[in-house]
From TrEMBL:
Domain spans labelled Guanylate cyclase: 14-145
Native organism taxonomy: Bacteria, Bacillati, Actinomycetota, Actinomycetes, Mycobacteriales
One Gene Ontology term of the molecular function aspect: ATP binding
InterPro entries hit by this protein: A/G_cyclase, AAA+_ATPase, AAA_16, Nucleotide_cyclase, P-loop_NTPase
Coiled-coil parts of chain: none
Keywords per UniProt: ATP-binding, Nucleotide-binding
GO cellular component assignments: cytoplasm
SUPFAM superfamilies per record: Nucleotide cyclase, P-loop containing nucleoside triphosphate hydrolases
Organism: Mycolicibacterium moriokaense
Tagged with keyword Nucleotide-binding: yes
One of the protein's GO biological processes: intracellular signal transduction
Protein name listed in UniProt: AAA ATPase-like protein
Length: 1033
């Protein structure tokens, strides 16, 4: 036991119990002295066999033994060794029984039972004799022994699964054992088949990839020639993706190309831009120790770029000056602007370049989206981008139409033989071992390396690489189903200090630095470079960075997994807790950006309350950077709060707070009304008598109803919502939270309510554009814009001036400005209030530019919609561009489900364009659909325009039934229009004039035309005025 780590840990073991049958009868017949001799000899032989096959006799039970295979030192083939040992023990027992029979005339028989599985193994107290194993698998082995026949070996189903490919077993049988609820399956072990190998690991030359190397070499040459390529390298774990990438680096560098690389990690898959940040730090040579120099280098390199974009890049790279505020832009805008900056000539290297991103199946969503943007320009560059991923990855990077896919298949027998013989050699004594390696590695290069290394470490083979000779005969052993025990065996050969360092590193992640490693270990005096040197020498980790700080990485992800999962939860929790504290200390001035990581470690430590707080903090930090990531943090906080409430129902606020944020933000992230969770939030807030979070959640719920085109429901709930806001009676809250109600009433066409509520916000804001800006950038601007819209819809004066005021106020926030421009022209142009004049062109173009640079996707799509309507409505050559923008906005609305209320406005414009080019049938069908949906949902804004297109198209088509349908459509609109709602009253006058003309009623047509012109002049609707004047000529 010398040198063995004393801390308890999980072990994959096989437990063996052997018991002498009818031991009491034997004792009575032989007497105590002779019995002692016989039992001592039996136990000596059993112990010798156990030790021969790597096991440890843990207990003598008086008439039997308990032995472990796989503890304290892990064995990759513990089940096979235990089976071989059990059979050998029975042989020894038979030999001894013959001797006892001849001398004493007594029969002796052993029963042996085996069971395999996870146990906790460690030292109890201070005595080395106090090592023991705990767990249900220990008891099950004893139960197997109790049902074994005399002279036989009975194994459990778990052991049988590990050895059935090499063992001779009886068919399963059901046996009754103590304390089991029913019969369990067991199998009798009869013997073992041919010898099998044990696992080791050593990297070798690349074999069996000639075709793949030829393909990637062609791609390298194409890239050098100016035809950039995106390559996907696909294969399961251990197949050699990383090894292939190292070969690519050699090829590229030998051709004069620059190479940069990074890898994705599972534990950072929810940290936005983490992968892109690491890759860019490599490309730009950014160091944490030289932050100011890094910023200066960026300013020099991007001297012609927008300074805000450079600050965004500094923020991404983690070197932004704390005194410089990060630009207030959404995650989507941040991604677009960074992608645009990185795509500028300033980032273009002086030589052809290979970029490698490994394991994108673990990539964070923001990096994935940004890489997807960047890859668009690769075909026109001298860059090759290699991404590697497992077959189960189906993200956007793998679905690119221009990606060149290289799938790494398992090595065929010829390549596997070449690889194995290069590692183990060609001496005749190792030929059988080589054959076993090839058979059981199944073409996986990593498995081959592991097997050879394990043989060398266990002295089964001796010599040097490529020149081994077989030294030890090994019994019927083989590679287990997984590599867990194999890697554990390598770990257990480390010194205790090195093993502790490896366990601590596994807590940090696949890549780690020395400073954090020391913090996790918890005792700096008990940790030094010698432990890291031992781990590197053992090829469990590699040093991947030397300056300015040394960094290390696990050689293979499975090494980290085994090192992590072998630790007891209590030990892991303590280390996670230390790591969380260290991260908070090291990032004391900028902990928000790693709040999600700290929260994850606190969760793993079992500190759920603290984890809750950090998840909430992470969500707040993500809110204006990545709403999806923010919602993930809030969702996890909600789950933790629910878990905590099961034990302590008191902190009800913990359950309410994340739910309010989730409900309040659903409309920004897409999804359905059910995704808001409003009903549950409402019930919790009612029980807690807490109205503020209820108001926040109800605001989001109303917005979700509105953007998903459930206008009637949104308007009805908005009335209740206003009463709730009034009952809270906080002016600042009223200013900030009335907007959802105003917007719902606006979409429903209830303009009197819009005017009243908007004026209330304006009065309470007292000219402060940012007062109450926790839902919108400027509640005052939104309220002023809504007031202008209501005045326009009701034909009141000064609505144009009110829109101007709203636009001036909205300049305080980019997204607010984009929204006000949308309200102005999405209402004004289709409804005939405004013309697509020079001001409309200028303001819609500016809004689209701002949205592309600063706003969330929601605002970007509304800006596309606004710009598309302006271009499509104007005479000129940009109609096709306008139509394309409308189609993009429509596709986003349908696909992302957060702008469905604007689909009718888009469809109205598309129908109008169809009518303009003479496709009357399609225009009629589409406008019919829009009208039906408007009446179904309760939306009112597009009814007049849609009905106008339908009626005019029907009259132009001129079928006998078309006039009747047109008249019915006019009557339906008239019946649903309230007096004073000029958005419908004006088109009704025009349509009645057109109907009268179609029926030859000239005087009636003139009457309606005159009334139409007079109303258009009174309300100042430019579009209708131009149309009315043309009709009057």
């Amino acid at each position: 036991m010398a040198g063995v780590e004393t801390q308890a840990e999980h072990k994959q073991v096989t437990v063996l119990f052997a018991d002498v049958q009818r031991s009491m009868d034997l004792a009575a017949a032989l007497g105590p002295e002779r019995l002692s001799e016989v039992m001592g000899e039996l136990f000596n032989r059993c112990g010798s066999v156990t030790q021969r096959y790597g096991g440890m006799v843990q207990q003598f039970t008086g008439d039997g033994i308990m032995a472990l295979f796989g503890a304290p030192i892990a064995l990759e083939d513990h089940a096979i060794r235990a089976c071989v040992a059990a059979l050998e023990i029975q042989k020894e027992a038979v030999t001894l029984a013959d001797e006892v029979k001849r001398r004493d005339g007594m029969d002796i028989a052993l029963r042996v039972g085996l069971n395999s599985g996870d146990v906790v193994f460690g030292q109890i107290g201070s005595s080395t004799a106090s090592y023991t194993a705990f767990g249900t698998h220990v008891g099950m082995a004893q139960r197997m022994e109790s049902v074994a026949p005399p002279g036989g070996v009975m194994i459990s189903e778990s052991t049988a699964r590990l050895v059935e490919h090499i063992a001779v077993l009886d068919d399963p049988s059901l046996v009754n054992i103590k304390n089991a609820p029913g019969p369990v399956s067991a199998r009798r072990l009869r013997g073992m088949l041919a010898n099998r190998a044990v696992v080791g690991r050593r990297e070798s030359t690349l074999f069996g990839r000639d075709d793949d190397i030829e393909a990637v070499t062609r791609i390298v040459n194409e890239t050098i020639g100016g035809n950039g390529r995106v390559v996907g390298l696909i294969g399961p774990a251990g197949i050699g993706k990383s090894r292939f990438c190292r070969e690519l680096v050699k090829i590229a560098q030998s051709s004069g190309m620059a190479t940069f690389s990074t890898s994705c990690e599972s534990h950072t898959s929810e940290v936005p831009f983490g992968v892109v940040s690491r890759l860019l730090r490599d490309v730009l040579r950014i160091s944490d120790d030289e932050r100011e120099a890094g910023r200066a280098a960026l300013r020099t390199r991007f001297g012609d770029a927008d300074p805000e974009d450079v600050v965004l890049l500094e923020d991404l790279l983690g070197i932004r000056d704390a005194a410089v505020a990060s630009p207030n832009v959404s995650a989507e805008a941040r991604r677009r602007r960074l992608a645009g900056l990185i795509g500028t000539p300033a980032m273009s290297p002086d030589q052809s370049t290979v970029y490698i991103v490994e394991d994108v199946h673990w990539i964070d969503a923001a990096s994935e989206a940004m890489l997807a943007d960047l890859l668009t320009d690769v075909p026109l560059s001298q860059a090759m981008v290699m991404i590697t991923y497992r077959p189960e990855y189906a993200g956007v990077l793998s679905r690119r139409s221009d990606i060149r896919r290289i799938t790494l298949a398992p090595l065929d027998n010829s390549a596997a033989w070449e690889m194995t013989t290069e590692l183990i050699g060609s001496h005749p004594s190792v030929n059988e071992l080589a054959a076993n390696i090839i058979e059981h590695s199944a073409g996986n290069p990593f498995y081959v390396q592991e097997i050879v290394r394990e043989f060398a470490e266990r002295k089964v083979i001796v010599g040097d690489r490529g020149a081994y000779r077989r030294q030890l005969e090994i019994a019927d052993i083989s590679v287990p189903a997984t590599l867990q025990a194999t890697i554990s065996a390598r770990i257990d050969r480390l010194t205790p200090a090195a093993k502790r360092a490896l366990h601590a590193a596994a807590i940090i992640g696949s890549r780690f630095g020395v400073d954090l490693l020391g913090a996790v270990i918890g005792d700096a005096d008990d940790f030094g470079q010698s432990e890291l040197a031992e781990l590197v020498h053992s090829e469990l980790i590699d040093q991947v960075m030397f300056t300015p700080r040394a960094e290390y990485a696990f050689r293979h992800p499975l090494v980290r997994t085994v090192a992590y999962e072998s630790q007891l939860k209590t030990a892991r929790a303590q280390r996670h807790r230390r790591l969380a504290a260290a991260l908070e200390h090291h990032h004391a001035t900028a902990a928000d950006d790693i709040a999600a990581v700290i929260a994850g470690h606190l969760e793993a430590a079992g500190d759920m309350r603290d984890a809750f707080g950090w998840h909430m903090r992470a969500g707040n930090w993500f809110t204006n950077r990545d709403i999806g990531a923010a919602r993930k943090s809030w969702r996890r906080a909600k789950e933790l709060a629910d878990e905590l409430s099961a034990a302590d129902p008191d902190p009800r606020w913990m359950r309410i707070a994340p739910r309010a944020l989730l409900c309040g933000s659903t409309w920004r992230a897409g999804g359905s009304v059910a995704d808001t969770g409003f009903d549950e939030l409402r019930a919790l807030c009612t029980r807690a008598e807490d109205q503020v979070p209820l108001a926040m959640g109800m605001a989001g719920f109303i917005s979700q109803l509105a953007v998903t085109a459930r206008i009637r429901e949104a308007s009805r709930l908005a009335s209740e919502y206003v009463e709730l806001i009034d009952s809270i009676d906080q002016p600042g809250l009223t200013v900030g939270m009335l907007y959802p109600a105003i917007h719902a009433k606006y979409e429903a066409g209830e303009m009197a309510d819009v005017e009243r509520l908007a004026q209330r916000v304006i009065d309470l804001a007292q000219g402060d554009p940012t007062k109450g800006n926790f839902l919108t950038g400027s509640p005052l601007a939104f309220a002023t814009g809504m007031l202008a819209s209501a005045r326009c819809a009701l034909g009141q004066g000064e609505w144009k001036g009110t829109f101007k005021q709203a636009l001036d106020i909205s300049r305080v926030d980019p997204t607010t400005y984009v929204s006000i421009v949308m309200f102005k022209y999405l209402l004004g142009i289709p409804c005939g209030a405004l013309l697509p004049d020079a001001m409309a062109q200028q303001e819609s173009a500016e809004a689209l530019h701002i949205a592309e640079r600063c706003s969330e996707d929601f605002a970007l799509h509304t800006a596309q919609l606004t710009r598309g309507i302006v271009l499509l409505s104007a005479d000129g050559g940009d109609r096709a561009v306008g139509l394309e923008l409308l189609k993009r906005a429509r596709s986003a609305a349908i696909g992302e489900r957060f702008m469905l209320a604007k689909v009718p406005a888009i469809d109205v414009q598309i129908a109008a364009e169809m009518a303009r080019v003479g496709d009357l049938d399609e225009a009629i069908d589409l406008s019919r659909h829009v009208i039906a949906e408007q009446f179904k949902s309760g939306a009112a804004l597009d009814r007049g325009t849609a009905t106008s297109i339908l009626v005019e198209s029907l009259l132009d088509r001129g079928r006998a039934v078309d006039v009747d349908e047109a008249r019915s459509a006019v009557d339906m609109l008239a019946a649903a229009t309230n007096p004073g709602f000029v958005l419908c009253e004006l088109p009704l006058l025009r349509m009645r004039a057109l109907l009268a003309s179609a029926q030859g009623e000239k005087e009636r047509c003139r009457t309606f035309t005159d009334r139409y012109l007079a109303m258009a002049q009174t309300v100042g609707f430019e579009g209708h005025l131009a149309t009315a004047r043309a009709m009057s000529r």
